[in-house]
Structures are given as structure tokens and as C-alpha cells.
Write a structure and sequence with these properties.
Pfam families: dTDP_sugar_isom. This protein is mainly beta. It has helices at 33-38, 169-172; strands spanning 2-6, 13-17, 20-22, 25-27, 47-53, 59-65, 73-79, 81-88, 90-91, 99-105, 111-114, 118-124, 129-135, 144-146, 184-185. The chain has a 6-stranded antiparallel beta sheet. It has a 5-stranded antiparallel beta sheet with strand order 10-8-12-6-14, with no helix packed on it. Bound molecules: dtdp-4-keto-L-rhamnose (TDO). The site of dtdp-4-keto-L-rhamnose (TDO) has 12 residues, from strand 5, strand 6 and strand 12.
Length: 190
């Protein structure tokens, strides 16, 4: 069973999976194509990614791939916890430049669905945090783009200052929102 909750930007969804608890712990189907399809999520995922962050305060993002390699992403945490952040990049969208952020943790088991047209990022809230995520298009370095995580225009509360955040060199030097071309249109908006 899959339950889907919409966030304040409706195209971004939280997926709540059934958990079978017993004296050993729990069992959960992390992904079941048929159940997702019955819940209205019919996405052909082609790649699974696994990322480990050793330090609390590690920021990855904000990332997206541009067409024809744009990606939907289905993210879950398998160790530790994160604040997950999703920014609307769809030109003409009533929520363009706005974001949603949500806590995800290994024990909670919830997943977030990040559709095409959105930038995605996360900050780890604990050391040794691992995420697994599915993507609907293959990695293409030449289509890989980003937007600056702490761009003042985005006004994202990451809970960590620039001085304390751990970032890749690439992510320290991403462009600001105002510098991005119009990569996506609102056509996919619900
Ligand atoms: C994303 C990706 C990276 N790589 C390689 C490129 C590079 O050498 C190394 C690390 O890449 P990055 O620094 O881009 O990794 P990372 O910063 O973890 O990038 C990820 O961030 C999160 C927020 C997302 O939303 C993902 O889509 C992805 O962009 O891994 C792949 O081989 N395949 C992939 O799919």
C-alpha cells in the first residue's frame, strides 16, 4: 500500500509506505511499480543512486538535469536524517522560485517525489547519513545544472550557516536563480 500526500507545491509529493512491524523490526516494500502506479505515480525509473555523507551539515544541491535528460527523483533515507529541499524552476508557475522542505529519516521511511522541473537539495542532520534514490533518466554530466543553495532570493532555511556547511566546490559556485535560463515551462504543472 502506498499513500500519497501533497505538499504546498502540489506536484511535489510525500510517499508513505506500509510498514510491517514485528519483534525483529520492520519490513517495507521500498518500491513497487504496481502500487505506485495505482497511486497515480507512473514513472519509469532507470537508475538507482546511493549517496553517503559522513558529516552533519553536508549540503548537496541544488541540482537538476535539463531536457532531454531531465529527471524525476524518488528519494529515501536509509541511515540518519536529512532536510530535503525542492525548488520550483518551472517558468510561468505560480510557485516559481518557491520551495518546500521536509524532514526525512531512516526510521520514518517516507519518500519524497521530486518531479521534472524542480531543483533538489538536502542537508544532513546527522553524521553518517545515507540516501537512496531512483531517477527517471540517466546521468548526463553535460545536462547537469545547479542553483546556489543559499541564494538570498530562494530564502531557504537550511538550519546551517555557510561557514558550517560542507559543500562540494561545484555547489559553492552554482549560479543564482536570476542567472538561470528558462529550462522548464509550466506545461507539466497539475
Ligand atoms: C549524480 C551522479 C554523479 N555521478 C558522479 C559525478 C561525480 O564524479 C560524482 C559526484 O557527483 P555530484 O557531486 O554531482 O554528486 P551529488 O552532489 O551527490 O549530486 C546529487 O545531488 C542530489 C542533491 C541530487 O538531487 C542528485 O540528482 C545529484 O545531483 O559522482 C555519477 O557517476 N552518476 C550520477 O548520477
Amino acid at each position: 500500500m502506498v499513500a500519497v500526500k501533497e505538499l504546498s507545491i502540489p506536484a511535489v509529493k510525500i510517499i508513505v509506505l506500509s510498514k510491517h512491524n514485528d519483534e525483529r523490526g520492520f519490513f517495507s516494500e521500498a518500491y513497487n511499480k504496481r502500487c505506485f502506479s495505482n497511486a497515480g505515480i507512473d514513472i519509469d525509473f532507470v537508475q538507482d543512486n546511493h549517496a553517503f555523507s559522513a558529516k552533519k551539515g553536508t549540503v548537496r544541491g541544488l541540482h537538476f538535469q535539463i531536457p532531454p535528460f531531465a529527471q524525476d527523483k524518488l528519494i529515501r533515507v536509509v541511515s540518519g536524517s536529512i532536510l530535503d529541499v525542492v525548488v520550483d524552476l518551472r517558468t510561468g508557475s505560480s510557485t516559481y522560485g518557491q520551495h518546500v522542505s521536509t524532514l526525512l529519516c531512516a526510521r520514518g521511511g517516507n519518500q519524497i517525489l521530486v518531479p521534472v522541473g524542480f531543483a533538489h537539495g538536502m542537508v544532513t542532520l546527522e553524521p553518517d547519513t545515507e540516501i537512496l534514490y531512483k531517477v527517471s533518466n540517466y546521468y548526463s554530466p553535460s545536462h547537469d545544472r545547479g542553483v546556489l543553495w543559499n541564494d538570498p532570493e530562494l530564502a531557504i532555511d537550511w538550519g546551517v550557516s555557510g561557514a558550517d556547511a560542507h559543500l562540494s566546490k561545484k555547489d559553492k559556485n552554482q549560479p543564482r536563480l536570476s542567472e538561470l535560463p528558462a529550462y522548464f515551462t509550466r506545461s507539466g504543472e497539475e
